[in-house]
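Q: Hi! First time doing this. I have a protein sequence and I read that you can turn it into a structure. Is that right? Here it is:
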Amino acid sequence: MADFSISGRMSVAGLQNQFKKTFGLELRVYKGSKFADPKATLASLSEKKVDDFDCKGNTKVGNFETKFEAATGLKVQVATLPNAAVEPGKLVNNDFTLSKASTMFGKTK
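A: Yes, that's right. Below is the predicted 3D structure, encoded as structure tokens:
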């Protein structure tokens, strides 16, 4: 499974598209309790300096979500796509790796 880098210069939509392309999963990005503006960059949404980091397939979903928040100050949740063949639109178990979740839920109807 391919890895990619995340930086503060990325837009929310760009990050979500890269995540979907890489893992076939949805990445929900939040600013507080609401969905973040897709056009905004991660740095513009965060109240802290955004640290660059890598998104790797062997990372557990829960660890990725925690690492993302620590690096960006923004909350994320990994979910299946709305048109996923299995459990559409559901949050992914935090104990799955991104690669395992991609294999299990990354197929669409």
